[in-house]
Structures are given as C-alpha cells and as structure tokens.
Amino acid sequence: MSIDLTRIGTRAILALSVAVLSIVTVTLLGSGVSTTAQETATCQVIDLGTLGTGDDSTLEAEGRWTTEDCDSSFHLDSDAHDYQFTVEEGGRIRIELKSEEADSYLYLLDSDGNRITDNDDGSGQLDARIERDLVPGVYSVEATTVGGRRQGAADFSLTISRVVGCEPEHLGTLELGTDLTATGTWTLDTCGSRFVVEHPAFGYSFEMATGGRVRIDVKSEEGDPVLSLISATAGLISANDDGGERRNSRIEKYLQPGLYFVEATTYLEREARLASGDFELVIHLIDEEERQESGYQLKIEASVVPDHAVAGEPYEVHYRIGNVGNGPMTEDHGTVDVYAIGPRAWDHTELTIDPEIGWLPGVSYHSDDIAASNTSVESDQVSAFELTINQSGPSWVWLAVVINDESGEEIALHSQWSEILILSGRTFEETTVSVDGAEYEVSSETDEEGEVTVLVSAAGDAEAEVESSTRAKAIYTAGAEAELLPGLFDRPKIAALPESEEQATISVFDPSSQTLLMKFAEGYTEAVAASGLLEAVENGESVNPVTVEDLLISNAENASEQFATLAASWRHIQEGVGDGEALWFTQALTIHSQLSYAERVVAPMVKAGEIVDAARVAEDGWDDEDVQSMVGDIAGDASCGAGASELGAALRSVGLDSADELVDLDAELRVALPLYGSAIDAVLCSASAADSENADFIATWSPSDAAELNALLESATELPASPPRLRVIARLSEDGRIEHGVEFDGGEQVMPDVRHLSADASVGIWHTSSVVELGEEPIGKIRTRRLEDGRLEVGFVNTGGQVVLPDIRYLPAEMPQGIWLRSGQIEVPEETTLE
User: How many Cβ atoms sit within 10 Å of the Cβ of residue 672?
Assistant: First the structure.
C-alpha cells in the first residue's frame, strides 16, 4: 500500500525516504567493503544491460554449470558465471539465483571488483538471494555453487529486478485514545530489512501533530520481533529486541512533532524460518497525566549487575522494585512477575500482593543493601536472581517487571538493561607461590572480549621457561589461595565444628573420590571393630538399635576430634600466608584434600551423631518433628543410590579380608537403625561425587591448562570392582502369574522383559527370565520353580551359568496379590560370557 500523499505531502515523504536510504547506505555500503576476488584467470563477463526504472523491470539470464567452466573467484573447485549490469536509478534491487540440481551461491561486487555482499540459501531451500539498496552504478554478479564440481553439472537461472511494494505504509496521525495498528506476515518473499536485508521486514510511517510519549509494540507468536524507529530529520533514534513480554519488541519514547518511520522485522533470517510468521504492530500515544493520576506504576528502580563474571559460573543480579505511582496496586489489578534474562539464561519470580493493603505508593523493596535506597526495605519475596552464561565475551542482562491481567495478557512492563563482560576463566591478582622449593609469580590478563590469559613466571627471572607441570602446580596453588583460604571456616558444612590447638597428623593424599573412600573405609573398619557388633552378630545375637546409636555417637566424636586438628593446621597455614609467606603447592593440595575429607566424610558423621543426641533428649524421641526433619535432611544427602556395593568396594580398597562380613553386618545395622544407613550412604554419595566436583572447581582457573590441572587431583589407587548385590523380588498378578524382578542395594528395581511365571507352571522345573542388566551390562537371569507344596523357590544364575541361591529363597504358596516379596541378598559372581 502506498503512502497517502494527500495527508502528508510529497516533500515530507521525500525527506523520510532520504533519511532511511542514507542510513542504509552508511550501514550497508559506506563501510568501505574492500574484499576482492582471488587472483584467477579472467572469466568472460556477460553484460545484462541496464535495469529499467519501472516496477516490472527485470534482467534475466540462464546458464549451466558444466564442471568445465571458468573457476569461481571465491569457491574452490567450483564453476562460475560472471555477469554485469547497470543501475541508472537507485533503489531496492533483488538478485536471485535458482537451481533445481545444485546449491547456488551469489556474490555481488562493485565496479572495482570489491565484494559488497554474498548469500547462500537466502531464497528458500538451496537457492540464493541478495537484496540491497543500490545507488546508480555498474555492478557485477558471480553465480557459483557451494558443492563444487564434484556435485556434477546443473542448470540455473539468474534474475535481477526491482523490489516493489516495500515503501512504508502510512498509518496516519497518532492521537490520544486512537491507536495506529497494522498486521502482517513475514515470509520468504517479504521485502528485506533496511538494516539487515536477510531479515524480512515491513515498513510503516506515522505523524505526530504534537509532541508526546509514544509506545510502539510488535507482537508475534511465531517470530522474534525486532523494532526500529526512524525520524525524518534525526535518522535512527531507537531500536529494540525483546523489550516487550517474552520475545516481543517495544519502544517507549517521547517524540517531537513530525514524521516517523517504523520497521517491523524479525530476528530470524529467511533461511532460518521454516514457516511464515504473523505479527501485530500497535502505536499508542500515552496520556501521561492520566497515567500519573490513575494509580500505581511499578518500576525496576535499580539493577546491580557485576562488571564481569566467569563463563559457566553463576552470578547474582540484585535489584530494587517500587511503586512510583500515586495509588496502591491491589490483587485486582493483576499479577506481578519479575524476570532476569541473559543470553540463553533466565530467572524468574512472581510477587504476591498483600490482599489487605496492596502495594502502597512510594514503597520499594530491595534484594540486598547493595541495591537499597534511603527508603526501600527488604522483603522475603525480593531476592537476588542467579544467572549463568556459558559463552565468554561482552554480554547483557535484561531485568523487567511485567504486570498481567486475569487472562494473562500483559498490561504494563518496565525494564532495565545492563552490560556485563563474561570472562573465559578466572582472573588472578598477582601473587607469589612456591612449587618444589622455587617461587613463581602468577597473574592474569584480560582482553576486551573477556579472554583471560594466565601468566606464570619464575620469581626474579620472568624470561625463564616454565615447564607445563610446574605451571599447572603454580596455577593450582594460586587458585587455592584465592578460592579456598578466604572464608575457609565459614563453609556451611564445617562452620559449626570445633577447633583445637593441636595440628593434624591425618594424611589425605589428594581430594579424589578413591582416596576419600579409602580413608573412610579405614575409619569405618576401626569403629566397627571397637563396637564389638561384628562378633555379636556372628554369635547369633540380635542387633540392639541403642548399640547402633552408640556407634554413631562414637563416630561423631572421633570425626569432631579429627576436624579440630585439621582446623588447627589450616589456621597455621592461613596465618603464614597472611604474614606474607608464599603458599606452597603441597600446602594447597593438603588443605584441598583435608577440606574435601572434612566436608564429605567428617561432616555427615558429625551430623548423624547430632541427630541421635537430639532424638535421645526429645520428648517424642525419634518421632519428634525436628528430629524427623534432621533425618530427612541427611536422607536427602544419601539419595544418590549408594549402598552395600559401594561400601564393599571401599572396604576392599584397603585390603580387608572381612569386607564381605562387614557388608553383611551393614545390612543388619541399617535394619536396626535406618539413620545409620543414611549416614553411611551420605558419606558414600558425597565422596563419590568428589571427582566431578573437583573438575568443576578448577575448570575455570585456566581452561588451556585443564588437563594438567586435573592430573594433579587424580588418585594413583583404583578401587577394586565390587560384585553386584541384589535381591530377587516377586509378586502375584491379578491373572495368577508371578512377576519377577531384582532390587539392587541402592533401591533400584530392574524388570527383565521376560519375567512372568505362569499360574500352571510345572512342579519342580526351573524357569528363567530374560537377561537382567545393570546399567547396560548383562549380569545374569532370575531362576524360579514351583515346589510340590505350592511354594516358589527363587535364585539367580550369573552370565557364566553359575547358580546362586540366597539364604532366604522360598515364597509362600498363598502370596498376597500385588505386594513385592523379597529374597535374601545375592552377591553375583562376575563373569564375562552368557551361556
């Protein structure tokens, strides 16, 4: 639709067109593109003539890539055909290269052979399209292919034409109470954006008779709208992507009287679009006096974003939000959502309005003192957002408050943008560390793109070469000094544990899972031996739960004593570094290893002892609400599925001949006191997670040295493989069949595909299930047979055909329907082949 000249006049339209075209010329052609073609043999240039001035003017050519044509100036081993054409009257020109058999590629060059632009797949499918505002002059086109000659010969057609219908549609004069609206559909054939031509766009113009605050929205369910606002006199004055709700765009700005141009485009390029996208444009003149008098207005009053953060690590965004209007906001006005959004990262909270007094005018809430004003207050609802951005480089954070009505439609929005630099790794303030008796300086440099380079040099000889292993140790030591020593005793798991003057004699060689599990196994064995429980059970005595409680309390006391001496050693090292001494690599590794031991082994045992103490003094004992809450917490720490198999592997790692007996005892102690099992499993879970968490801990210290850094924390001792331990489970189905499965130590149940014993199965004949797998490895099959007295006997056969019969293996003749019954525990011998 053309502009209504009777409304705004030819001169105004001309001024607007000049403003838009001048911006485009500077943006697209004025950057001095000087990319030239490769030096190759000159190809024949076919002159297509001059493109006419009419809307239907077209230049056309057809050809064939034969695989023996002239070489492309840009694509290796590709045919090319070169064309020339002349533009006498500037305007929007579209060049399309189509082929049904080849993947076409277009290059557009100026009269001096400088590349202006190129395109692949811009016309849908594998066809190419270039769309540009071209000034008068002579231009060249190279028509080539992506696949090259190896794709074979192919026909093509080339079309050069003027793009019509891209003139801005005039929407009229904006007035109070009457919005200007338009709808459209972005497609492959839509005119290209005036700014980034690969993106389909629609243009609109409107007039402001008087100055006023204007809100412009572009909404789309399918697309990702991008909005630009241009003045006929001042050029581009605003642009926005995602300033509205979700991915919609919004510009709100005070505009002087005059003529304005709006471009509604989408962030998605033509070749990225799988279907068309509808959109709606709304231009609204805000009645500022009415807005101020009408009542509430929520705004993000402050956003506090760090100057920089490390890629892959979370950072906090604090903010202050307030009602700057003249009236309260109530529940009837709508819901309030606050968002913090970054590239591929977001966080969200919904604020609840006080049903009695609402959100009073002048009341503001802050997430932290860093975002506070003189009058704002804290609120449980307003807390810091946490974002993690994985890509280094300059980035952004968008903080917004959105008010929605009862139907979920947005009725108000206010937002703030902040910049943040995402670093490729951690930075180091210059520090001196000691490695193998020599001192080294560790520091870092950061460029404008956030790329961090860690520098390591010998103290006193900056030019001396530093071996890779020494460099890794120096970086690790500097990292430990920066990340572990500050706040060492404030860490939540150990903050409340006691300290002493006596320094530690506990050796923890590294913070690896293997070493922690071995260290735990040593202490576990000593504690059980001292308790006398193993001998009691072997003598046929039942396990007294109080005795298990005593064992946990004893373990907790020993663990507390261990921590006290560890803490004394850490204090000594801390004080030395505080006095200016260089931290040694061995000291850094010792603190890291002992700290890991304290948090993963000592802390769970101390917590278990505290729970026993709490239960003993509580009026309701183990049924006390607070005690149950503590039990639930430690059970959550033990939720990784660890059990007897992991315990057995840890015990065997220290060479115990009695590992099997201790694992059997463990099963009895868990039955007698469930807290005992949770405490042991909490240690096993935490220790088993050490390796992955250690890798995460040092991952950002110097990514280029990751392999060497990780090697520093590896254990030289491998835990022996532990055979699977399971129970056969069985239940009676409604149809009379018996369903079978297995249950592993950690509680995981596995059902083989073939697992039912028919109701009329023959007496005395063994039936086997299909293969049972642990992970993706087959470990054997379930065996079942019906006995003459109606009972069932169950067992297991491993992958080598070895039969294992549990002590408890008979199921009653009258089984309850739908209830799982369990056999005794089975330790499956390891085999490699299934017979």
Answer: 18
